[in-house]
Every structure is written in structure tokens, then in C-alpha cells.
From TrEMBL:
CDD domains: SPEC. The keyword NAD does not apply. One of its GO terms (cellular component) is spectrosome. It is found in: Cytoplasm, Cytoskeleton. Residues 1-22 are annotated as: Disordered. One of its GO terms (molecular function) is microtubule binding. Keywords: Actin capping, Actin-binding, Cytoplasm, Cytoskeleton, Phosphoprotein, Repeat. InterPro entries: Spectrin/alpha-actinin (IPR018159), Spectrin_repeat (IPR002017). This is Spectrin alpha chain-like protein. Belongs to the spectrin family. One of its GO terms (biological process) is maintenance of presynaptic active zone structure.
Length: 398
């Protein structure tokens, strides 16, 4: 029995070493501890052979001697020690296996976090492009990014599978593993949301650039037509009828292109109604377009009115010229030095003078019409009112 007593203290040494609470902090430490623990198993297996021999020896003693009461408890304690030693080794092995799994999980979680951080950095880009081509390039880059994220998202899914397997085995740090997994998954979900948000913003930026391109085209056309409408060619009466016809064609062109202005206006209003991020800028451009379009219409109408006024002035000028020609003829006759040489010629001159007086009397009504027309031009704020008034006053005074 002294052999049994000597074996017990020796067998407690590996048991105490296995009771150590030290756990690995890295995968390499976990693998080293598992390897060392396996070496201890070989040491334990060697001691188990001594256990077996001692147990066999004790059973023989028990069969041959009558002192069974002294041997049997020793054999029981020996068996209990064997079971305790094996249980301690198994428990430590299980703990080390779980620690190894934990370090594997942490490493994969760190890799997932690092991967997510690199993708988040890509999304921390406020560049939305300043032209249609640049926005389309950014959209292509984002589509490639999304494809890459989808292709590499398996590392997070693999982390989820690993954590489920570990937790299902009642891991000692199940709560920590679950919490870390939730943090990674939440970060992945935020990445997905950020990616979708940037895609929407880039799509809105593309819509903005398309709207601005259409706006530039319409604004350029309006500016060009504004220059034509602002031309004061009505001040030159040459080919006035042709100018009136050309302006009528010009106004028809404006009317035909009214739909272009309406189309780009509707496009901008739809973007604003959809909550576009550049809604204020779009509204400002729409207000500017509306003002430019109204100004063009007003300028075109003013030119039409001025052309009509110029035509009326031209007709009135012809009337004045006709009146001036008649007055020149009358004055020429009145200034004649021919007073007749005899009775017959004098009678002839008197008859001609009587006719002239009748003609002058008959021209009183046209003169009244000239006065009224000049007043009308003045009251209507005709752009040639001062010139017309001066000419009419000159003729009337004659």
C-alpha cells in the first residue's frame, strides 16, 4: 500500500498543471498549448499503466490476504484518482479547444472589420461629379464596388456560420462571441445602407446633370433669340414689310419651341417633387429660365408693336410727303409773277386762282386728319412721336 501512497502525490502534479486557468491570447498560443496538453496526455498514459499494474497487484493481495478492509479503500481511492486525472485532462482539452476556436473567430472578425473599414473608406467620398460624363464614370466605379462587395461578403457569412457552430457547442464566451458577431453584422448592414445611399445620390446627380444639360440648351436658344428680338431694325423703314413678315415667322418659331421650355421646366419640378438633394439649386435655375422666357416673349411682342408702329409711321409719312408736294405746287403758283397781259389772260388767271382757292379749301380736311393722326401718335407713346409731331407741325404751319 506504500506504493499506492507514493503514486498519489505524483499523479496530482499533472492534474494541478491542467487546472491552470491560463488561456491563449492568439491562435499560435492556442496551438502551442494544445500541443503541450497532448504531450501531457502521453505522460498521463504512462502513469495509467502504473495504475493498471498497481490495481492488478492490489486485487491479488485482496484475494490472498484477509486484510481486505485495508486494501479495498485504497483501490477505490486509486480508481477515483484515475478518473479525476482523466476528467481534468478532458476538461482542459475542451477548454483549450474552445479557446482555439475563440481565437480563430476573433481573427476572422478582425479580418472582417478590416475589410469593412476599407470598403467604408471608399464610401467616404463626397464627389458626385460636375458633368454628365464624370457622374457616369463615378456610377460605373460604384457598380464595380458593389459587385466586389457582393462577391466578398461571404467572409461575413462565414463568420456567422463559425460563430453559430461555436455557440452551439456551449462555448464559455458565447455572449462575447454573439456580441462581436452582432457588431460585425451591424457594420456590414450599415455599409450596405451607405452603399445604397451613395448609389441613390449618384443617380440623383446624374439626373441633375441631365437636367442642367437640357437647361443649358434651352437657355442658349433663348439667349440667341433674345438677341434677334432686341434688334431695333424697325427704326430703318427700308424693307419694312419684309421685316414684319420675318418677325411673324420668328414668333411662330417661339411658339413652336414653347414645348422645349415646358419640358425642361417639368423635368426640374419632378426632381424637386421627388426630394432631390439639389432642389434649391434646381428651383433657382427654373426661376431664371422662367424670367428669361418671359423677357423674350415681352421683347418679341415689343418688337412686333414697334414694327407695326413703324409701318403706321411710314404710311403717315407718305401722307405728309403727298401733302408737302401739293403745298409746293400751290406755293409755286402763288409766287408766279404772271398777272396777265390783256383781259383774256387776266380772266384765265382769275379762273385758275379760283380753282386754286377751291383746292386749298378742300385740303382743309386732310390737314385736320394730319393733326388728329399726330395727336394719336403722341398719345399712344409712339417711338417716333417727336419726329412725327415736328413734321406735322411744320406742314400745318405752312
Amino acid at each position: 500500500m506504500q506504493t499506492s501512497e507514493r503514486l498519489r502525490p505524483g499523479s496530482q502534479i499533472p492534474s494541478k498543471r491542467m487546472d491552470s486557468s491560463e488561456l491563449p491570447a492568439t491562435i499560435s498560443e492556442a496551438e502551442a498549448m494544445l500541443e503541450l496538453h497532448q504531450e501531457r496526455k502521453a505522460e498521463i498514459d504512462g502513469r495509467l499503466e502504473a495504475f493498471k499494474n498497481l490495481k492488478y497487484f492490489g486485487m491479488r493481495l485482496s484475494a490472498n490476504y484477509s486484510e481486505q478492509e485495508d486494501i479495498t479503500p485504497s483501490l477505490a481511492r486509486l480508481e477515483e484518482l484515475r478518473r479525476t486525472l482523466l476528467a481534468a485532462w478532458e476538461e482542459r482539452r475542451s477548454r483549450l479547444d474552445q479557446a482555439h476556436q475563440l481565437q480563430l473567430f476573433k481573427e476572422q472578425a478582425d479580418q472582417a472589420d478590416s475589410w469593412l473599414a476599407s470598403k467604408e473608406a471608399f464610401l467616404h467620398n463626397d464627389d458626385l461629379g460636375d458633368s454628365l460624363s464624370s457622374v457616369e464614370m463615378l456610377l460605373r466605379k460604384h457598380e464595380a464596388f458593389e459587385k466586389m462587395v457582393t462577391a466578398q461578403a461571404g467572409r461575413v457569412e462565414e463568420l456567422e456560420r463559425l460563430s453559430l457552430e461555436i455557440v452551439a457547442d456551449h462555448h464559455y464566451d458565447s455572449a462575447g462571441i454573439t456580441q462581436r458577431l452582432q457588431a460585425v453584422v451591424s457594420r456590414k448592414d450599415r455599409l450596405k445602407e451607405s452603399s445604397m445611399a451613395r448609389r441613390r445620390r449618384l443617380q440623383e446627380s446624374k439626373q441633375l446633370q441631365q437636367f442642367l444639360r437640357n437647361m443649358y440648351e434651352v437657355e442658349g436658344w433663348i439667349h440667341q433669340k433674345q438677341q434677334v428680338a432686341s434688334d431695333e431694325n424697325y427704326r430703318d423703314p427700308t424693307n419694312l414689310q419684309s421685316k414684319i413678315q420675318k418677325h411673324a415667322a420668328f414668333e411662330s418659331e417661339l411658339s413652336a419651341n414653347r414645348g422645349r421650355v415646358a419640358a425642361v421646366t417639368n423635368e426640374g419640378e419632378k426632381l424637386i417633387g421627388a426630394g432631390h438633394f439639389a432642389g434649391m439649386e434646381i428651383q433657382t435655375r427654373l426661376d431664371e429660365l422662367d424670367a428669361a422666357w418671359r423677357q423674350l416673349q415681352d421683347t418679341s411682342q415689343l418688337k412686333r408693336d414697334r414694327l407695326n408702329d413703324a409701318y403706321q409711321a411710314l404710311v403717315f409719312s407718305a401722307t405728309l410727303e403727298e401733302q408737302e408736294t401739293w403745298m409746293d405746287e400751290v406755293e409755286q403758283q402763288l409766287q408766279s409773277e404772271d398777272h396777265g397781259k390783256d383781259l383774256s389772260s387776266v380772266e384765265h388767271l382769275l379762273k385758275r386762282h379760283t380753282l386754286l382757292e377751291g383746292d386749298v379749301h378742300n385740303h382743309g380736311e386732310p390737314m385736320d386728319q394730319i393733326k388728329m393722326a399726330a395727336s394719336t401718335f403722341q398719345e399712344s407713346n409712339h417711338f417716333m412721336r417727336d419726329e412725327i409731331q415736328d413734321r406735322a407741325r411744320e406742314i400745318i404751319s405752312r
